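Something for you to look into today, if you have time. What I am after is a single protein written out in full by you. I want to see for myself how the chain folds. Could you add the entry underneath, on a fresh line?
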Amino acid sequence: MAIAQRSAETEWNGDLTHGAGRIRPHTAAFDPLDVTWASRTESADGRTSPEELAAAAHSSCFAMALALCLGNRKVTPERLLVNATVTLDQVEGRPTIVSSRIAVRVRAAELDRKAFDAAVREAAVLCP
C-alpha cells in the first residue's frame, strides 16, 4: 500500500512552440504555475519547466533523507541547503533529462567530514 499519493494537472493550449500551459496542484501547496516550451529550453521569463519542478522535488527529497541520516548519527543540523540542478539535453534527437546534480551545504555542531560523507552516501540511496 502506498504511503502517499500527490498529483497535479497541466492544461495546455496550442502547439508545442507557441502554446502555453498552466500547472495546478491538487492541494493549495503552490499557486498555479505557467509553463511554455520557451521557458523549458530558452529563458524562464517568470515561468517554470518540468526540469525546475524535478529539481525542486529532488532537492527536497534529498534534504529530508540527509536530515534522517544525520539524525541516525545523533546530529541535528542547524541548517541544510540542498541545491539540485537538472539538465535537459538532446539525446538521439529527443529532449531528455540527462542528470540531476546535488550540492549540499550543512551547518551542524559536532559533525566531522567522515560522518558527513557517510550520511550523504546513505541519503543518496534513500532518495531516488
